[in-house]
Amino acid sequence: MRGVKQAVGYWCDDILIKKYLGRGIGVAVLDTGIHRHPDFGRRVEGFADFVDGQRILYDDSGHGTHVAGILAGDGRLSGGRYAGIAPEAALWIGKVLDYAGNGMVKDVLSGIEWILERRKRKNIRVVNISVGTQPGLDRWEEERLLEGVEELWDAGLVVVVSAGNYGPEKGTVAVPGSSRKVITVGAVDLAGGGPGRKKWDYSGRGPARGCVVKPDVVAPGTFIASCNGNYGRRFQKPYTVKSGTSMATPVVAGAIACLLSKYPDMTNVEVKLKLRESCVLSPHTEGWGMLHVERLLAP
Hints:
Blueprint: H1 4-8, H2 14-19, E1 26-31, E2 44-49, H3 63-72, E3 90-95, H4 105-118, E4 124-129, H5 139-154, E5 158-162, E6 183-188, E7 217-220, E8 224-227, E9 239-242, H6 245-262, H7 268-278, E10 289-290, H8 293-297
Parallel strand pairs: 1-3, 1-4, 2-3, 4-5, 5-6, 6-7, 7-10
Antiparallel strand pairs: 8-9
Helix pairs in contact: 3-6, 4-5
């Protein structure tokens, strides 16, 4: 298995990155929930279930746990090998998707409202939404979702969303990744093809509605090892591998949490500009380019 640190590690100066690991920064994740995985320690500070109304931590899909592990797992069960990007960040988890990864726009909007109510008291600075609508959703529902994520942005939060997996044709970025305001993340397959392994090319492509260039940034998202939402059940290992723009999104959100732990007074607009300036061009590039963590954290 290949952990997210391995996927982006050669962009990071170890001394630099180890000083800024998201401490003091709250990150909200709207997804399928979260499993009580040891790699999260006691850093899950809030949980709300907008699907079934349960009060205990759970993830009946595993998707949300994997996303949260990429973002903020500390890798303790792997000796740090499968640690996430910001392993000292505090997590606020809103379950807005069911066991199959499906959800209602109204539940996502409820999760957004929940975040807005807590953001100042709990220092929630970043929101990760690895959620994208399927093609054919009612236009009114799309507009409601776009308004919801942009309300988060207008409140000063850094909103990071996935581009969706409906690519590689043009115009396939999923809502809410089509928003002009939020940071939209596409996925790349850095390992490429090889014996018995095809090269994946699934990430949603722009332009979005109104000829908006999207995604803004790309990051590793293919064959990424992270926390297993079924760990603790019979024969289940601590880590599992998943692929998608859902996996690339927390790579960027975690890097932003690290940036804010270094520069806590940055606004979301300043974060977006710093991210744009620090990206690098490559054969995989779309939008501003590929995430480069060392350049992002540099003075």
